[in-house]
C-alpha cells in the first residue's frame, strides 16, 4: 500500500465519521421540530413562520461564509432541511386531527408494478406515514379506483397532471363518477431515461416500449431517433419488464433509472423529456375525507357544472376572487351523454373550515347546477424560504 493510498484511506475514514455525526445531529434536529409541532398543536399556531425562517437562513448564510461555505451551498442545504421539518410537522398535526387514519398496514393501489413512477410516488408519500406499506399494482385507473371502493385497498395514488404533457384526462373522468375523497397530494420529479437490458447503444434501438404519457413527454427525443417502432404499454413498469424479458439489443424502454435497476436495466441516455424540469402531480384518494387543521396550508378540489348561459363560468370564478381565494387549477371535461356540456374541476388554496371557503361554497351552490367537494387536503408543495440577496450578504 502506497503512502498516498494510506493518506486517502485516512481522510475517507474521517469523512465517514463526520457523516455519521451529521446523521445523528439531523435526527436530533428532526426530533426537536416534532416537539415544536406538539407545542404548535396546543397553541393553535401555524406550521410555518416565514419571517423566522428568513431570519434563520440569513444568519446561517453569514455564519457559513465565515467558515468558507458559499451562500448557495448553505441555502440549498437548509432548504431541504426546512422542507423536511415543515412536512413532518404537517404530518403530525394531520395525525392528531385524524386519529382513525393511523393503521398498522396501509394498503395502497397504484398504476403498474415496482419501478413505475406511481410506485416511486407511493413510496415517497407513505415514507412519512406510520404503518407498513402493502403495494397493490394495477393495470388501469379504473382498477385502482375499484380496489379502494371495494375495500381491497385503503388508498389509491393517481397521477393527475404533468408539467410536460398536461392533465391526465382519464383520471379526471374517474373522479367524476367515484365516491372517493382526495386526502393528499404530492409532486414527484420525472426523469426519463433510455433503458436497455443488454450491451447496446442508441443507434441500434429499433423498438421502444413506454406508457403513452411518457411518449408524449419525450416527443422531441423520439423525433431525433427517427425510424423506431413505438409500443405503448399500460405502465412504465410493464415496459421495463418487457425489455428485461426480451433481452434484445434492438429494444429499449423509457422510464426512471431507479425503476430500471429493479429490472436489471441500464440507462444509456437520460433527461429525455421535452421539458428538463419535468414533474408529475399525484393525488391520494380514500373512502373517507380527512380533516385538515387550520395550521396546515390546504387545498380544496371542487367539481361543478354551470347553468347554460353566457358568462356563467366567469360568474362562478368571480365568487372565488371576491372571497380572496386563489385558484391553482381549472380543468374542463365533457359530461358523458350531454353533448357540448362541460364539468369543471377546480383546485383552490383554502381550507373547508375557513370562513371565506364556506361563504364561497354557499354562493356557488346557489348559482351552479351541480357542485361537489372532491376533497380538502394538506398541500405538500413547500415553497422555499426567500432571502433577499442584499440581506444575506450584508454584515
TrEMBL record:
GO terms, molecular function = chorismate mutase activity; oxidoreductase activity; prephenate dehydratase activity
- InterPro entries linked: ACT-like_dom_sf, ACT_dom, Chor_mutase/pphenate_deHydtase, Chorismate_II_sf, CM_dom_sf, CM_II_prokaryot, CM_P_1, Preph_deHydtase
At which positions is substrate bound?
12, 29, 40, 49, 53, 85, 89
Per UniProt, residues of the Prephenate dehydratase domain are 107-287
**Domain Chorismate mutase intervals:** 2-93
Q: Which GO terms describe its biological process?
A: chorismate metabolic process; L-phenylalanine biosynthetic process
Question: What's a Pfam family this protein contains?
Answer: CM_2
Role of this protein: Catalyzes the Claisen rearrangement of chorismate to prephenate and the decarboxylation/dehydration of prephenate to phenylpyruvate.
- Keyword match Cytoplasm: yes
Q: What is its main location?
A: cytoplasm
The protein's matches in NCBIfam families, at most eight in alphabetical order, are given as: CM_P_1 (TIGR01797), PRK11898.1 (NF008865)
The record's listing under SUPFAM superfamilies reads: ACT-like, Chorismate mutase II, Periplasmic binding protein-like II
What this protein catalyses is: prephenate + H(+) = 3-phenylpyruvate + CO2 + H2O; chorismate = prephenate
Protein name (database record): Bifunctional chorismate mutase/prephenate dehydratase
What species is given as this protein's source? Saliniradius amylolyticus
- UniProtKB keywords: Amino-acid biosynthesis, Aromatic amino acid biosynthesis, Coiled coil, Cytoplasm, Isomerase, Lyase, Multifunctional enzyme, Oxidoreductase, Phenylalanine biosynthesis
**Compartments, as annotated in UniProt:** Cytoplasm
* Record field: transmembrane: none
Amino acid at each position: 500500500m502506497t503512502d498516498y493510498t494510506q493518506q486517502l484511506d485516512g481522510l475517507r475514514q474521517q469523512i465517514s465519521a463526520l457523516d455519521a455525526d451529521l446523521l445523528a445531529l439531523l435526527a436530533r434536529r428532526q426530533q426537536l421540530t416534532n416537539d415544536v409541532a406538539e407545542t404548535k398543536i396546543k397553541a393553535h399556531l401555524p406550521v410555518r413562520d416565514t419571517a423566522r425562517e428568513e431570519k434563520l437562513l440569513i444568519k446561517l448564510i453569514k455564519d457559513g461564509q465565515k467558515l468558507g461555505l458559499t451562500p448557495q451551498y448553505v441555502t440549498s442545504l437548509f432548504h431541504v432541511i426546512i422542507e423536511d421539518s415543515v412536512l413532518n410537522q404537517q404530518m403530525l398535526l394531520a395525525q392528531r386531527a385524524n386519529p382513525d387514519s393511523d393503521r398498522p398496514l396501509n394498503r395502497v393501489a397504484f398504476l403498474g408494478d415496482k419501478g413505475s413512477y406511481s410506485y416511486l410516488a407511493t413510496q415517497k408519500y407513505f415514507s412519512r406515514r406510520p404503518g407498513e406499506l402493502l403495494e397493490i399494482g394495477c393495470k388501469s385507473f379504473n382498477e385502482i379506483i375499484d380496489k379502494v371502493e371495494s375495500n381491497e385497498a385503503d388508498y389509491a395514488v393517481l397521477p393527475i397532471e404533468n408539467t410536460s404533457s398536461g392533465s391526465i384526462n382519464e383520471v379526471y373522468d374517474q373522479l367524476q363518477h367515484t365516491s372517493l375523497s382526495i386526502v393528499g397530494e404530492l409532486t414527484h420529479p420525472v426523469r426519463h431515461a433510455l433503458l436497455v437490458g443488454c450491451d447496446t447503444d442508441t443507434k441500434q434501438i429499433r423498438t421502444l416500449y413506454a406508457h403513452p404519457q411518457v411518449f408524449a413527454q419525450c416527443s422531441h427525443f423520439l423525433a431525433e431517433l427517427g425510424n423506431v417502432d413505438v409500443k405503448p404499454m399500460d405502465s412504465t413498469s410493464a415496459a421495463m419488464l418487457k425489455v428485461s424479458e426480451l433481452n434484445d439489443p434492438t429494444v429499449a424502454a423509457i422510464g426512471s433509472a431507479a425503476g430500471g435497476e429493479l429490472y436489471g436495466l441500464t440507462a444509456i441516455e437520460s433527461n429525455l423529456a421535452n421539458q428538463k424540469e419535468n414533474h408529475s402531480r399525484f393525488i391520494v384518494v380514500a373512502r373517507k375525507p380527512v380533516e385538515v387543521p387550520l395550521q396546515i396550508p390546504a387545498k380544496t378540489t371542487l367539481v361543478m357544472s354551470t347553468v347554460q348561459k353566457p358568462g356563467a363560468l366567469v360568474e362562478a370564478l368571480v365568487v372565488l376572487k371576491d372571497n380572496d381565494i386563489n385558484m391553482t387549477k381549472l380543468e374542463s371535461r365533457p359530461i358523458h351523454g350531454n353533448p357540448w356540456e362541460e364539468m369543471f374541476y377546480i383546485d383552490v388554496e383554502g381550507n373547508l373550515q375557513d370562513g371565506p371557503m364556506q361563504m364561497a361554497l354557499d354562493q356557488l351552490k346557489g348559482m351552479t347546477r351541480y357542485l361537489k367537494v372532491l376533497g380538502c387536503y394538506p398541500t405538500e408543495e413547500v415553497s422555499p424560504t426567500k432571502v433577499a440577496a442584499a440581506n444575506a450578504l450584508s454584515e
